[in-house]
Amino acid sequence: MITPEAIRKLAELSALSVSSADEAVYAQQLTQVLDYMDVLRQHTPLDARISWPIHKETHTRSDHAVNLNGELPQGFHRTRDGFPVPKISTAQS
Amino acid sequence: MNTITSYLNSNQGCRDTVDSILNTIRSDEHNAVVGTYDHLAAQLADYYDATQSDRPFAGVPIAIKDNLCIQNELVTCGSQILSGYHSPYTATAVQKLLDAGFIPICRTNMDEFAMGSSNETSVYGPVKNPVNPTRVPGGSSGGSAAVVAANLVPAALGSDTGGSIRQPAAFCGIVGLKPTYGRVSRYGLVAFASSLDQIGPMTHTVSDAAALFSVIAGHDPSDATTIEKPVPKLTLNTEQSIQSLAGKRIGVPTALLSDSVIHPEIIQAIRNVLDQLANAGADIIELDMQFFDEAVATYYILAPAEAASNLSRFDGVRYGYRNSQAQTMQTMMQTTRETGFGHEVKRRIMLGNYVLSSGYYDAYYGKAQIMRGELCQQYTKVFESVDAIVSPTTPTTAFELGAHLDPLQMYLADIATIPVNLAGVPAISIPCGTDSQQLPIGLQITGNWFDEAGLLTIAHGIEGLLS
Amino acid sequence: MTPSGIYKNYELVVGLEIHVQLDTNSKLFCCAAAGGSNQPNDHVGAVSLGLPGALPVLNEQAVQYAIMAGLALGCAIQETSVFARKHYFYPDLPKGYQISQYDQPLCLNGHIQLSDGKKIGITRIHMEEDAGKLVHQGASGLAGSSGSLVDLNRAGIPLIEIVSEPDIRTPQEARQYMEKVHEIVRFIGVCDGDLEKGSFRCDANVSVRPVGTTQFGTRTETKNLNSFRSVEQAIQHEFHRQVDALLAGETIVQQTRHYDDATGTTTALRTKEEAHDYRYFPDPDLKPLVVTTATVDAIQQTLPELPDAVRSRYKTEYALPDNAIEVLIQDRNLYQLFNDCQACIQTTPLPELAKWLVGPIQSLLKTQSPNTHFSPSDIAWLLDECASGKLSKTMVKDVLEQLKPGMTAQELVNQQGGGQISDQSELVGLVQSVMAENPDVVKKIQDGKVASANFLMGQVMKLSQGRAKPDTVRALILEACGVAV
């Protein structure tokens, strides 16, 4: 049973600012979906010897450096000295 | 019918073709297209008009789903949070298309961040099914399905995480292939669920799907989940494909022929196909496949978890939409994401973070991983005794726009397509008739890992039988 | 150094977490360059910008360096380790998660030995990406700033995190542990160890408990320890602070603290502990890292001898002076040069070679860098010639300075006339001609001013282009002047 309070905590974890009205709606919807998950929790696993990923070859790359040179196209918030962000609050929420 | 060959054989110049398509798109009422690559398409078309190119598909137009990156072009995933964002690089799959001569014409509408089964969650508004505009085209590759079904282009690229290529293909009456996980590079595909996403072709014919598959598949050093296996190049011949059906072992999961799960008219259409297959000499084998409900639960634990993680990068700091009124960094991120994401996306992000959060990880994510292993095990066993699995693609035909199914109902509609993504096996949906409302019915054929050659041959044979 | 007064009833328990930047060309999962750059956001790529559609691919050199570090620190390299995503939102974290390793790290169960023989255990070493940097505007730090600028040059640089067992019991031990780990990772060549640049960083986990008890007290984590000295001081301060608090009846709050070098004190970063839920799960874009025993063995073969073993060997087998040993260990180039020269040298004793390397040759390397024109065989030949008296020390230095590419030392010496003059008659001739030109100086010497012989010696040296043997010349001059030698 997901409460609106739980949604508030999830919203914080997800960096979403959910309104209190929406909290109740999401709570109900998530409860419905998670209740359905009980079908999985009731399932007793058989002895499954296969796990994901099935194909496990490790792929690595050589240590050659290539930078994304030149101007970034539109849609970036970059200034010459970095990406600007407003002040990082140190206040307790 | 719009096929790749018809474009290759056409006498019309590339530029004329491209301009004519772009014109038609401008008056398209299905809302399937969210942007056009005017400049890129014109440049390429002019080039192919002027040069005798030896690229196998020189000048063939193709539509690209709005979650695939092309350098210096917009890519927005049907979301406000990526508004104005142009990618600095091109997705490997798209680059392969460009190298083969294809001309990307337009960006197709999609469910926001590929989360949805009806193409109703896009910030650009819903897509209308060209077969019947009061109906949804399916999702999340609804726009790609619609442009092909409306004969605007012969082919489109879509992406499939839980059925997002196959289900819209079924709803719109076209062919949609999801290759084996690891066949096609995901570099440049905006990630939804990393262990489930695959890019695939949406076309009118199985041969076109096969041709496109050969172009886009292959190991990519930029994607560590791609597999180093040679990509088959198929030349499909209808007679040969039909003949090769004889002796093929075709499995049918009885759970997906039950009328408590699947609409009776669809069951009828599938049974029709099975009869024809039997006549062509195939062995029809009933399968007692299990865990369909568990598979849906597993998917809706794993996919939102991976999505919540993948979408963490959208914080307004570096690119895309940003709430510049915010006074603090934290508020900026929270309000940017709150405004930038739609409800379905936010729902899945919170669901995903819930199942990953400490205290719940083992109960949900842990169990889902185990179930996933069991599904893989089941497919392994099944493919010891069958060459392919046949089932309906969807439980119903295209439902009405604005039907407002609640989230859980929507999720359950993916029951036939989801297990395929969880295991990573390849599957294709081909049209197999219509229902009493003339809405297309899709037949899903599932193959063994990396057996696209076998799968496509069988699909081609069935397509031949049905035509 | 045992605590005194009220503090002696409490035992200090310290564990150190050291982040080591691996000295690779490119980043851990992104192909952008890993070095620093003056221009913000210069060394970035799709992955380290957190662009949509970007995918991580593991840097094989970083894996090799991590395994080398693990072996050098006595760890067992795990056959299978898993990369996991660690989630939190911060502007310097472009993907909104850091790719790290959680419950299946690359290395387990290592240890190092301090100089007094005490073993400090190493719980684990894992690989992870570094975060970007924030430059705060309008204030010197985060507090009071009006905004920040994000620079992602550092984001994605490969790190290994070395976590020690809580075996450390004094601030001095902490410092020694940190210095020892620093020495090792620099020596094997996986890290440049530049504390100022931030390629070697340390956090301290500190707790206290009454002497004689075994249960751990609540620990605090102290950050911003930018030098070996600050580690020692911060821990000392934190020890006292915690004991003072306990004796005053307070409880220790689990928190992160910031060390201020200027005041030598730590302050709490947050007044209430924010329990981060990092939601670790295995990164689905990366396969598990499988390292075979064959690979580990191959890497073990290439691992150089470790500093303590080198010290011991240099002292007992070669009798090198202590200060020379330390310099050689600190300077990898010099250490390598010593090895190479040692292979060519024939008669020069090794302590002599060492003195030359850590003295004049080290200076020459600095002035001539980046390209030096003398080879180990040049050095070896010159020193051997010097040992047999055919060349003077000054001549050796001159030759090393003057060598041009494409020429060996031997060739240059021959060109200049072939080393020190040892032919007596030639030397006598030189002395006589100088004495003939300076009769007044000769008179001074004959009158008893022996020091004036130095002037004549200088003239002989000039005339002979430095090739005359000074001692012999002096003796000849005095003899010729009739002064008893």
What are the key terms here?
heterotrimer, B: 467 residues, alpha/beta, Amidase signature (AS) enzymes, eleven-stranded mixed sheet, 40% helix, globular, C: 485 residues, alpha+beta, Arc Repressor Mutant, subunit A, nine-stranded mixed sheet, 15 helices, 38% helix
Summarize it:
The complex is a heterotrimer of chains A (93), B (467) and C (485). Chain B is an alpha/beta fold and 467 residues long.
For the largest beta sheet of chain C, what order do the strands appear in spatially? 3-7-8-11-1-12-13-14-15
Looking at CATH, which topology of the domain at 4-216 in chain B would you report?
Amidase signature (AS) enzymes
Number of strands of chain B: 11
Proportion of strand residues of chain B: 5-15%
Shape of chain C: elongated
Note the run of SSEs of chain B as H and E. Answer: HHEHEHEHEHEEHHEHEHHHHEHHEEH
**Count of DSSP helices of chain B?**
16
- Globally, the shape of chain B reads globular
Helix amount of chain B, in percent?
25-40%
Tell me the strand order in the biggest sheet of chain B: 1-3-2-4-6-5-10-11-9-7-8
**What is the count of helical runs of chain C?**
15
Q: What profile does the largest beta sheet of chain C have?
A: 9 strands, mixed
The overall number of domains of chain C is 3
CATH level-4 homologous superfamily of the domain at 4-216 in chain B: Amidase signature (AS) domain
Architecture overview:
- The complex is a heterotrimer of chains A (93), B (467) and C (485).
- Chain A is mostly helical and 93 residues long.
- Chain A is built from three helices and two strands; from the N terminus they run H-H-H-E-E.
- The longest helix of chain A has 17 residues, at 20-36.
- Chain A is flat.
- Chain B has 467 residues and is α/β, with parallel strands linked by helices.
- Chain B contains 16 helices and eleven strands.
- Chain B has an eleven-stranded mixed beta sheet, with helices on both faces.
- In chain B, helix 10 packs across helix 12 (343-356).
- The longest helix of chain B is centred in the C-terminal third of the chain and has 24 residues, at 362-385.
- Chain B is globular, with a radius of gyration of 21 Å.
- The two termini of chain B are 13 Å apart.
- In chain B, 65% of the residues are buried.
- The model of chain B has no long low-confidence stretch (mean pLDDT 96).
- In chain C, 38% of the residues lie in helices and 19% in strands.
- Chain C has a nine-stranded mixed beta sheet, with helices on one face. In chain C, strands 6-5-16 form a three-stranded antiparallel beta sheet, with no helix packed on it.
- Chain C folds into three domains: 5-290, no CATH class; 305-415; 424-480, Arc Repressor Mutant, subunit A (Orthogonal Bundle).
- Chain C contains 15 helices and 17 strands.
- The interface between A and B is large, with 51 and 76 residues.
